[in-house]
Structures are given as C-alpha cells and as structure tokens.
C-alpha cells in the first residue's frame, strides 16, 4: 500500500472500517466455500475486532492517526469547557496579536532591510562630541566636506549624499495648483550603487553629480507615480517646479524602493547638485551613507574620514570670529562613528526607537501573564482529569502519548488564538501608525504580511504553547494510577505551583501598571504645561511667494486680514511657535565676547505679542517704525541668562560677531519656542522689517500669518482667509493652514500614544491577572471544601475562612508586587528619556500600582471567599 493511501486512510476511518469488515466477511465466505464450518472459520480467522485493529494498523500511518484522534478529543474538551476555553483563547489572542503588531511596527521602522543591493554593508556616518559637558551627536554634513571624504576613500567605500525627505511645495502647472510632496535630494550615483532599475524612463547617474544647478531632472517613486498619475507613461518629459527651479521628469524608480527614510515614502528624487546649499561650507544639511567594500575594516576607514573631516573643520574655523572656546573645542574634537544603516535612517527611528522597545516589553509581559493564566487553567483542568489519566496509564498508555494528547489541546487553543490574533495585528498596526506624526504629514510605513511576519507568528505560537502547555502536560502525564484511583495526589503541591504562577503574574502586572502610570503622568504634565500665550482660536497661515515681495505687501496683507468678519486680530511672523523652526546665534552683552550660550530669535510684526496674548511684563510692543537691527523684545529666561535677572528693558546686546545691535524695548512671559519638552530657551523677538547696510527694508519670500478668530472654530474661516490673501495679493499663496492648538497637540503625539497603549495593556494585564487569581482561588476552594465544612461546623467565622482562603495567595501577591517593584524601578531608568516631570522613585508613582493591584486582588478574591463561606457542613460530612 502506498504512503499516500495510508495518509488518506487516516481521514476516512468509517470507510476503512467498512472495507476491513467486508474483507473479513469475504475471508469467511471463502473458507465456507472450501467446505469449512462457518463457526470454525470465524474461530480460525479470529475476532472481528482483532481483525479490524490489525488491518487498521497496517493501512494507516500510526502517529498521524493518533494525532487525528487527539485533535478530535481535544476539540471535544474545548467544547466541553466552553467558557474557560473561550476566555483562554481570547486572552491568548489579544496577547499574541499585540506581540505580532508590535513586531510589525518595529520591523517596518527599525529592522527591515532596505530593498537595495548591499544593504548589509550600508552605514550612516555620524559625528559625536560634547558641548558644555553634554554629549551631542548628529549625522548632518556640508556637501564640500562630503566631497573630500568621498574622493579620499573611493577605493574602500562608496559614499552617497542623501538629504532627509521633506514635505515640499511643488506644482505641475500654475501657482494655483500648488501641492505638496516628499522630496529627497540624492547623489546621482545612488541608484546604480543600490542596484535599482527604472520602471519607466531612466534614473539619475554620476553625470548628474558634477556641476551645481546643471541637472534639473526629477525621478518619481513608483508609489507616487501610481497615486498621482495613475501610472500614466506620458509623465516622462513633464515638468514640475519647486520654488524658482524647473525640473524635467526623466524616470520612475521601480518598486519596492521608496527612499532611505523609514516612515516617509519619498515621492520625488532630485540631484543633490540642485540643492542651493550644495556649495556652502557652513551648512550641514545632508546625510552621508557609505557602502563599504567587502573585506574593508571599519576602524581604519573611520579614522581616515575623521582626519579629513577634522582638516575641513579646522580650515573652516579660521573664518570664525568671536566663537566661544567651548564651541570651538567641541567642533575640533568631533569623532566619527559608522552606524549600520541597512534598514535606512530617519528622524522617526530616533524618535520612536526606545518608545517601540518599551511597547515591545509591555506586550511581552502581557503575553507572559496570559500564558501563566492559561497554564494555571490547564493545571486545574488536569487535576479534574487525574482519574482519566490514571486509567489511560493502567491500560498501557505511555507518558509520551499522554503528553502529546494534552499538548494537542494546547496547540489547538494556540492556533485558534493565533487566527484571531492575526486579524487583530492586521488591524492594529496601521492604526498605531496613523497615530504617529501630525495629521497633515502622517508617518507612512510599509507593513507587508510577508514571510518575516509569518515566521515570527509561527515562532510565537510555538513559544506560547511551550510556555503555557508543556508544564501542565508533563504534570498530567506523570500521574500515578494507584494514588489517582484512591482519590488523587496531595493537592497542596499542585496549588503551590499555581501560586508561583500567580506571583509571576502579579510581578509582571505591577511593571505594566507602573510604566503606564509614568507615561500617563508624563502626558498630563506635558499637556498642561504653561504656554505663556493663549493658543485657542489661533489660525496659522503659512504663506509663500515665488519671488521676494516687499515688506509693504506683507503689511497690507495683515491689514486686509484684520478687516475680515470674524477676525479679532492678525499679525505676521517668520515661523509659528512650536512649529519646529529654529534660528539661534551667540550674543554679546556690553561689547564683551560672546558666551557659550546661544539665544534664539524670531521675527515678528507689530501687534504679534498682542495677537498671541503673550503677557508683556515690562516695556512696550513693537511699533511700525521698529526695524532689525534696532529694537528687540526678550523673554524672562533671556533676562535671567544674560542679565542675571535684572530688568533688561533699555539694555543692549549684539549678535553675529558684535556687528548687529539691538536695544531691548520690552520683556514678555516665557513661552516654549520649538518644543514643550526642552527647558525654556532664551528668546529675543525682533522686528520683521530688516534693513540692509544702506537702510533699505528687505523683502521676503515666506512668512506665517497669525490670525485670532472670534469664534470657537478658527478653521471655519480658513477657506475665506486663503481666498482673501490671494485675491488682494496674487503674488502670495497660502501653502498650509494649521491651528496653534494643533501644533501644541502635535508636541505630545508620542506621549499620548505611549499613554494610550500603556493604559490599554495595563487594563488587559489587570484583567488577566484578576482572572488568574480568581481561577486559582476557585480551584483552591473546590479542593478544600471538606476542610472548610468541618471548620464551619466547629464554629469558624467568615473572617477566619476568608483568611484561610486568601492568606497563601495574598502572600504571593505581596511577593510578586515586591519583585515587580524592583523590576519597575530598573525599567524606569531605561525609559527616563521618554518621561517628563516624573521619576520612577516618586512616591505617587509607586503607590498607585500598589493600590490598583491590591484592589484588583481583593475584587478577584471576593467570589471565592463567598463560596467558601457558603459551604454546607452537613452536606460535606454526609458526602464523606
């Protein structure tokens, strides 16, 4: 009989049994035909049952047939215990799904190799130094410095220049059709070095890297080509404009490459030589990637590039004037490091690397809690099946056979849970991604369900089965028939194992609740941090012009906005607060050399202070005649930092090597400049009108109108204000509209996400731990009913019964809580960089999880205590 036939026979048992029965009867008939008596023939052939068993064994694969029987039996067991099985499957599904979802996010952002050649030999070059004793690292470079390093190490590595992918205004027609796309400037040699091919047209090459502004070509990503142009092949040859530069589309890069910045899908690739900063030695704006040749050691390569970088910075430093010695020392003591970049490089990685690691730990703890819960459940079920197992052993079942039978049930639970988990992970991972970054520029991660995710899921199922199923299976298979048939083994040993599991669940649960408390406190303190201005009802209109517009045009636009119905006030600034923009410089006080502390600057129009409702502590607001250089308004931190807390009004300072002077005319309340997280910075607000050496007011190509509306919904006026600006000043175009409240909320996106996820997992952990504690106590009461009945008959009170029921378990709860406290304090040190205004050893953060766990334990223990107190002594004694 063929192997395939034996496999098929496993799944057609009834038909096989009929065939064996027919074959037996055929043998009987043949014996009768030879003249033998029917009864004699049947005795000679043996019993029908023996013949069927022998025939069955020879026509099937034994282990597969046993597995089929175990699956059928396991399914009956799951149906028999529907409630407990459903609870176990749902808890496992939630835990497995959360783990898989976390893996998808971490893999997509941090681990998944770029779809390029030589990803395993791709590195990002960083610089490390210390400024005022604090470590500082960054990976931005000036292009002339990159050129020197590229030429020096070309025999050992291929260097590539790539800019971060930035959301940029561009148009394929008139300014009225302006749209936004993610644009990345790259070395022309990048596509060839990465082994990329065009889906249409051609890609950039080394000829596009030779002369600045000489290669006005653009390559589209396949994703953008599909979304924006519907894969129209006629896109080749079309033109697009960015600023004043006109580019010709020459190709589309094939899938799956979408850029080098995980979390951002690049839409348009431009030659690095088309960037206006490419010739500047004082502008560090691009990354340097290195594809190291096989066999080249990183140490000597890094040292060579470090020497070239140092020589470049030393030469550049000769042009510095009045730069503080600490800053000069930091620049000239930079060390280069090469960080593996096979998975790409992006700011999103730096921002969320540790946060995703914490989420991964939380979901792993929830998984362990779920596994401990199900293990306790199966241990309790195994106790009720002790006599069944004893009978199986008595009739010849081996221990391996029993282990396989119990493990099959565990595998079935894990498989059913994994199916639900797959749906949960498929839905939840994109949901979490949608919560990252502002709504107008959300993160975009590729989340394919490929072999990496499938392999992780299969491995996770195996681990889960081993975690919750192996110990109960081994314990059930080790049953001793004599003890079991006499009434079972000592239940205290089994309960002790379950109590240990409870202690582990409590420890893990404490850590999850503790970390959730830290994240919630961080979010609350950031969200309620004093701002120093009123962000409500503030509408921000980022506006650009193709050519420089006189200051009078911008002033007229402000006045026009003030005349719109529903507008309370309006002003103009270079960039909004908390918008991420930054302009700083070293300043000089009373003619002294600049110090090591920088001041930040922001250009604003008259009445900007009033429009922002920023309290003016002393002095006055700007007037129409104030210019830069000339007048300045500073914040409290500026006064404390540079004037030692004295009233700064009337005093002067200078910037840019003491060539640009200001007189302070006012002081305002502190307000966050670019981030809620960082300490308050010294800030000087200066007039929007800047005059050159000849006294002529300079124009501008961009600015942000700040409009305070009268209604509670400022966005209701967005369309009207956009049209008003364009109608009155066609040369101005509103490129983006936001509210100041959106910028404030964007500052806490990561904290809000961590708080939401941590609270969710804390709730799941508490629920699972509570169910586990209830299950153990319920099992304990069932095992000790006779004891409780006797004690009640002898006069024991409810309080005594409650103490007997809960004392051992609550001891494990306290022990688990102590272990969890230690683990939580260790975890708090790891996540300190994610916290704000709270520390792990704060009394409030330690008391909260203790109270929550005690309340959950008391609530879970109540049903078991009531059940024990209601035991009928007479019924127990009669049963005995």
UniProtKB/TrEMBL annotation:
Q: Indicate yes or no for the key word Amino-acid biosynthesis.
A: no
- UniProt keyword Electron transport present: no
Membrane topology per the entry is:
Multi-pass membrane protein
Q: Which UniProt keywords apply?
A: Cell membrane, Membrane, Transmembrane, Transmembrane helix
Compartments in which it is found: Cell membrane
Kindly provide the name given to this protein in its UniProt entry.
Answer: ADOP family duplicated permease
Main localisation: membrane
Tell me where in this chain the MacB-like periplasmic core domain is found: 85-298, 507-723
ABC3 transporter permease C-terminal domain location is 361-478, 760-872
What is the similarity comment for this entry? Belongs to the ABC-4 integral membrane protein family.
Membrane-traversing stretches = 86-106, 355-375, 411-433, 453-476, 497-520, 753-777, 798-826, 846-866
Which residues belong to the signal peptide in this entry?
none
The major lineage groups are:
Bacteria, Pseudomonadati, Acidobacteriota, Terriglobia, Terriglobales
Q: Which InterPro entries match?
A: ABC3_permease_C, ADOP, MacB_PCD, Macrolide_Exporter_MacB
């Amino acid at each position: 009989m063929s192997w395939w036939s034996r496999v098929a026979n496993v799944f057609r048992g009834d038909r096989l049994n009929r065939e064996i029965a027919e074959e037996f009867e055929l043998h009987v008939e043949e014996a009768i035909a030879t003249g033998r008596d029917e009864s004699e023939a049947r005795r000679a052939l043996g019993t029908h049952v023996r013949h069927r068993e022998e025939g069955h064994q020879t026509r099937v694969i034994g282990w597969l047939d046993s597995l089929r029987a175990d699956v059928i039996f396991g399914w009956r067991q799951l149906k028999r215990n529907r409630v407990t099985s459903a609870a176990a499957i749902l808890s496992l599904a939630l835990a497995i799904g959360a783990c898989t979802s976390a893996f998808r996010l971490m893999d997509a952002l941090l681990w998944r190799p770029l779809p390029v050649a030589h990803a395993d030999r791709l590195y990002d070059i960083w610089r490390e130094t210390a400024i005022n004793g604090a470590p500082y690292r960054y990976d931005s470079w000036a292009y002339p410095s990159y050129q020197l390093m590229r030429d020096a190490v070309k025999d050992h590595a291929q260097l590539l220049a790539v800019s971060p992918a930035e959301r940029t205004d561009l148009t394929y027609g008139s300014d009225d059709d302006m749209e936004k796309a993610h644009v990345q400037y790259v070395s022309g040699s990048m596509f060839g070095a990465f082994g990329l091919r065009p889906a249409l047209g051609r890609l950039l090459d080394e000829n596009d890297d030779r002369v600045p502004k000489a290669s006005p070509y653009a390559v589209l990503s396949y994703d953008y080509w599909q979304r924006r142009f519907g894969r129209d092949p006629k896109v080749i040859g079309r033109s697009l404009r960015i600023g004043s530069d006109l580019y010709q589309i020459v190709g589309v890069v094939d899938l799956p490459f979408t850029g080098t910045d995980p979390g951002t899908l690049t839409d348009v690739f431009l030659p690095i030589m088309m960037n206006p900063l490419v010739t500047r030695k004082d502008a560090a704006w691009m990354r340097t990637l290195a594809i190291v040749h096989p066999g080249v050691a990183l140490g000597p390569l890094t040292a060579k590039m470090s020497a070239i970088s140092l020589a470049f910075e030393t030469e550049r430093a000769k042009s510095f004037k009045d730069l503080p010695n600490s800053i000069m020392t930091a620049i000239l003591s930079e060390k280069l490091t090469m960080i593996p970049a096979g998975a790409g490089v992006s700011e999103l990685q730096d921002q969320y690397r540790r946060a995703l690691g914490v989420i991964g730990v939380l979901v792993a703890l929830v998984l362990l809690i779920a596994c401990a819960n199900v293990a306790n459940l199966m241990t309790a079920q195994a106790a009720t099946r002790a006599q069944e197992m004893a009978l199986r052993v008595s009739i010849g079942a081996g221990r391996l056979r029993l282990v396989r039978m119990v493990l099959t049930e565990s595998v079935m639970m894990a498989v059913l849970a994994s199916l639900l988990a797959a749906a949960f992970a498929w839905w939840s991972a994109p949901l979490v991604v949608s919560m990252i970054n502002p709504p107008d520029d959300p993160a975009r991660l590729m989340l394919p369900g490929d072999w990496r995710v499938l392999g992780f899921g299969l491995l996770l199922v195996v681990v889960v089965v081993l975690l919750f199923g192996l110990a109960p299976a081994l314990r059930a298979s080790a049953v001793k028939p004599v003890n079991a048939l006499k009434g079972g083994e000592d239940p205290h040993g089994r309960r002790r194992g379950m109590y240990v599991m409870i202690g582990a669940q409590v420890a893990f649960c404490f850590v999850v609740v503790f970390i959730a408390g830290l994240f919630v406190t961080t979010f609350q303190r950031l969200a309620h941090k004093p701002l120093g201005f009123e962000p409500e009802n503030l509408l921000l209109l980022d506006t650009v012009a193709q050519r420089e517009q006189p200051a009078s045009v911008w002033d007229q636009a402000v006045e026009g906005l003030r005349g719109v119905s529903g507008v309370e006030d309006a002003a103009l600034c270079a960039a909004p607060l908390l918008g991420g923009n930054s302009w700083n410089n070293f300043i000089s006080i009373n003619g002294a050399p600049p110090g090591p502390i920088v001041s930040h600057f922001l250009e604003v129009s008259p009445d900007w202070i009033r429009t922002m409702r920023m309290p003016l502590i002393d002095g006055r607001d700007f007037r129409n005649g104030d210019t830069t250089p000339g007048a300045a308004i500073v914040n409290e931190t500026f006064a404390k930092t540079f004037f030692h807390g004295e009233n700064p009004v009337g005093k002067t300072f200078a910037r840019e090597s003491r060539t640009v002077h200001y007189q302070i005319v006012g002081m305002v309340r502190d307000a966050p400049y670019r981030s809620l997280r960082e300490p308050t910075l010294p800030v000087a607000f200066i007039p929007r009108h800047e005059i050159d050496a000849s006294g002529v007011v300079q124009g501008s190509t961009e600015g942000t109108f700040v409009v305070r509306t009268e209604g509670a919904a400022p966005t209701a006026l967005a369309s009207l204000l956009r049209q008003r600006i364009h109608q009155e000043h066609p040369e101005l175009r509103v490129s983006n509209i936001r509210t100041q409240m959106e910028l404030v909320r964007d500052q806490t996106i990561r904290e809000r996400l961590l708080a939401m996820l941590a609270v969710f997992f804390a709730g799941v952990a508490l629920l699972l731990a509570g169910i586990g504690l209830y299950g153990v106590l319920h099992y304990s009461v069932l095992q000790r009913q006779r004891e409780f009945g006797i004690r009640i008959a002898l006069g024991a009170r409810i309080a005594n019964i409650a103490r007997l029921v809960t004392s051992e378990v609550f001891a494990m709860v306290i022990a688990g809580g102590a272990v969890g406290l230690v683990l939580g304090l260790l975890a708090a040190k790891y996540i300190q960089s994610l916290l704000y205004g709270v520390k792990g050893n704060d009394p409030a953060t330690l008391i909260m999880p203790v109270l929550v766990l005690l309340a959950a334990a008391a609530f879970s223990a109540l049903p078991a205590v009531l059940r024990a107190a209601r035991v009928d002594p007479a019924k127990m004694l009669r049963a005995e």
